[in-house]
Amino acid sequence: MNAPLSARVLKILEWDQVLGELAARTSSEPGAQCVRALAPAGKERIEPQLRMITEIKELLGKGEAPSFSGVTDIAPSCVLARKGGSLKLAEIAAVREFVIASQALRGFLTLHRADIPSLSDELSLTSPLKEIGASLIPALTDANELSEARYPVLARLKGEMFRLRQETEKALLALVYAPSMERAVQERVFTTRNDRYVILVKAQYKNSVRGTALDVSSSGQTVYMEPDGVHQANNRLISLSVELQMEIGRIVRELSELVGAHADELMANLERAAYLDFLCAAAALSAHIRGSAPEVLDEPRMQLYGARHPLLYLMNPGGTVANDISLGDPYRCLIISGANTGGKTVLMKTIGLSALLLMHGLHLPAGPDSRAGLYTDIMADIGDDQSIAQSLSSFSGQIVVMGEMIERARPGSLVLIDEIAQGTNPRQGAALAQALLERLVESGASIIVTTHYGELKELGSGDARFVNASVSFDMETLAPTYRLHVGIPGASYAIEIARNYGVPEDVLARAQALLDERSTTAEGLIESLQRHARELDEERARLGDAQVELDKEKRAFADKVRRQAHTAEELKFERGVEFLDELRSFRVKIASRMKEIQQAGMKDAVTLQKEALAIEAGVRGRMQNEGPARFLDRYANFDPDAAIPGARVLVIPLEKEGTLGPLDRAAGTAEVVLGRGLKSRYRWKDLMLPRGAPPAPPRKEKPKEPEPEEKFVPLTVQTSYNTVDMRGMRVEEALAKMESEFDRMTRSGIRVAVVIHGHGTGALKAAVRSTLPHSGYVMDFRPGEMGEGGDGVTIVTLRD
């Protein structure tokens, strides 16, 4: 800043109220202190701070907010401890609470670092306080008392004192309730005097009680006596109390030294926590005033869109009118005219407060596409500077301020003048006002001025450095609209406003007659311009409403399309769920018979297996009919003439993709490579090709062969009759056993075999599956499914 901001200007712009709103949104006293210490900054500090506020505002909008509970002003305690002073236990407890709060804040920043990247420097500058936290946090309890678990001496002393008090009080109760003491005691109670247990004895019986008189009541009727029987206990209690206080003092000094040793990092973290609290308050205020971060320009100018007075908006959000405001490019002075009570002063204060907010790195009460630069000084004359003590009238008071403005104005200054040069001869006042404005513009300052002088309204048409603006007035309702129109001067509507406030009509008629023709013509022209401007605004508003309705219809149409797509997916899903439920019921039926099959004899086992095969056939029939339909949106039925080895293919029963291998046209099967090189053969009906797959290369037509008989390997339950367990065997030994068992099963009428080879290194499994296609006993085979042993077994269909 080239010049300090005037306290008078800050008062005029109600800056203290803005700071009050900001401080009210902080959660800690250090945060509020940070607000009160807020000062203008340079662009290099303001831009990062604006980004931080924006990111925190978005995070708060998601319901994520840091807690500042425990953040208190511990700076005085840290300074005292650093100087070697001893803190009070309450001060140490406050430091402990801050350490916990600081660690929680650091954790919050770490957790949300992706949402608030601009605060990465704040995170790196925040100490984890591990060393002091490891010692201080367990030293006190959550009730802010020294921890007996941490300091066993305290526990021992307190425990001994507790036990001794219990014994002493028990002895005193026995004494005061003894029959021999009935006449001597004043009351059957005990109390303490000078930290020593005593009983209340009647004065006339004091010599009948063995003990020492420690005190007498004010009436002299009661003597507080320490019985001889508790004398030693009292002495011990006092001794233990002294020891306890000494131990507490030692611990407090030790903890004070700990705080002093870490005072610098504690105060640095306090500064970070206060700043974070300030940023959260700034984000909350921005949300409440619908603020945003503008683009910060290098030059002192501004282009605000939808700007609102922040304090008025907080009081009446629905009744505050937003305006687009431009200043500094290409003109230097904005001359605002129009009716009284039309909002000219509010507009001027809005601009001044926007400049102040940006100078302090805060969001502006305007749209996010706004742009603004930093001003080096703000000068304002809004209101009445009349002073009886200094013999200044309103006019002379303003002239004094004008003189100061001329002396201080320079490039980068923002000058706000309300009703310039008023309160004197209108012709002389207008001439003086024009001369003052010309001098201020020559200084390079940016100026906003309100006026009713017609001569100043003419400046905007003849000098490019000036531009007219007006606040509009609704002639039908005789009420201001508070809308700013740049480029059009405003009529004063004095007679219309007077009529609205009840001035007699004959007076108004006389006033109208006294207006000279030239003035009336000029005013009429201005009124006409404003009427056309209002009509344009209304048409623009209607177009805006139509655009809003169109956007709503577009969104409704898009929602309808999404809902229809969602409904289609739900229907597909419901059919899939229905099929899976039926399949699950079949599996339950089969599982319910597994134990019977495993325990049955050969004849019964064959019968039950045939029943299982019938269920299996039913399931597969459903799979053939329903399975492919679920994938038709992405896959086409398998066409062997269009299939290319090496292409992707869907295996319907597994609902997984694999790589297509060689086709066996005679058997109507194809080899598919799944997972880690596992090769299996599947029927063409169990395969589908991705839609859009490249066509197969042309090949010579061959005579059609008869349709192969459909074959499949059914769901199989392991029994002692149909299982070949080869786990732990060498490959040669295992293959020999497999062939031998296949021979036995074929002769016994067993049609399906379960070959258990396990996973292991995969060598035995690969040897089995590479041998099966060449075995004279095997018609077909496949990997085991869930419930059969998975890929650790191979299910084999044997030839009849």
Spans where pLDDT lies below 50 across 5 or more residues:
386-392, 696-711
Number of H/I helices:
23
Helix fraction, binned, reads: 40-55%
**The top level CATH class name of the largest domain:** Alpha Beta
Number of strands: 24
Categorize the overall geometry: flat
β-strand amount = 15-25%
Largest sheet: 6 strands, mixed
Mean pLDDT: 83
At the fourth level of CATH, the homologous superfamily of the largest domain is P-loop containing nucleotide triphosphate hydrolases
Radius of gyration (CA) equals 47 Å
Alpha carbon gap, first and last residue: 101 Å
CATH fold node name of the largest domain: Rossmann fold
Query: Number of domains in the coordinates?
Result: 5
Class based on secondary structure composition and strand pairing: alpha+beta
CATH architecture of the largest domain: 3-Layer(aba) Sandwich
Q: Could you give the order of strands across the largest sheet?
A: 10-11-12-8-13-14
